[in-house]
Amino acid sequence: MIVGGGNKKQNMKTLKKFVALMTLAALVAGPAQALAAISTISTTLTKDGGSGAAPIVLAKWEMYPSETQGDNGRDDRDAYLTQFESTGIYGDNVEYKVCSIVWDQDGVGDLATVGAKVFYPTTVSGASVHPEWGCGLAVSNQFVLTQLTKAEGIDLVCNQIKTNDNNLVKFNPTAGFAGTEAGLSADWSRMCAGDYELMKGTAFVYCADTELSYEAPSGDYRVLAFAQDRSGVNGTLENTLQYVDTDALEVDFNAIDYGQVKLLVEKPINGNLDWDTLGTNNATVRNTGNTRIQVGVTQDDMGFGQFITEQYKVRFDGHVGNDVDSIEFEPYALTTLPGELDLSEMDEIDFSIYVREFPVDHSDTYTGTMTLQPVRISHNPCNG
Description:
alpha+beta, Coagulation Factor XIII, Chain A, domain 1, Immunoglobulin-like, 2 domains, 5-stranded antiparallel β-sheet, 4 helices, elongated, disordered N terminus
């Protein structure tokens, strides 16, 4: 607003100054707003406990998937509950199914979700490569189980599993089952009876596919199955999946060529950390099992033979990695090389040869055979 008198030209000049000042004020005030502190807003809720009864997980188990009709319900051992072996093959994980039988007295339509969650062993620490793989931490987020039809569930449980591996299943002792290995016969009779919930179609089987890494630590995995109804009320049942100790290693070489060797002179052949196609020298080894290992080696005498004292005319030495000393070993003696391979670990492996005497009745070329094998060592424990 322009106050006072003056001619039109003066008034316009005054107006321009006023607009300019207001624009400046806007420019100055703008950044001050942008620099205001971010507000933190708390949010809360209270779970509605509902009034219905909790769903019940009647039974649960883990098994290998099978594309062959009638061949579901298997694991790797005859012992109670589930036992799986690692494949021992780089990159080849163990694929399996988690299944449960769920009943809700308010009807299957009252169920909001049926799921499961798997946890690493509580006493075993993960490797440096995967420190989160152990000490009771979750293997993955919880996953949802899918409902089978009534006919599919009855066939899977009362025909296939009961026939193929009837000690695979954990029955729920709070649901009137024995829930023990000794009580399996009675539990199966009840579950597959014509008047029980599964046969009546008021309880259903739920399953989902999941996997366990070939290099995850061996031990006892806790598997929790749960069912939640629309009131948020849960029913749970858990069992133990044993990931059986599986010792395995892989190498990227199929020959060690010592080349020209002199009498009484150590001849080393060093490995490396580059994983190559299978070949000669440049030796690399990696742990492909679910246990921590060292490397055991056995080597024949390559045709050198023995002295009259029965000492061999040749010896060898070797080690894994660069932070340990080598160890000497005689022909045919299984020897554990210094140096450890943690879960998922790869390292170089070095060898050397020392000739005490060249037999006079042998050609200038010597050949032999070396055998490598994993030697299990203990897992690292969890701290505290």
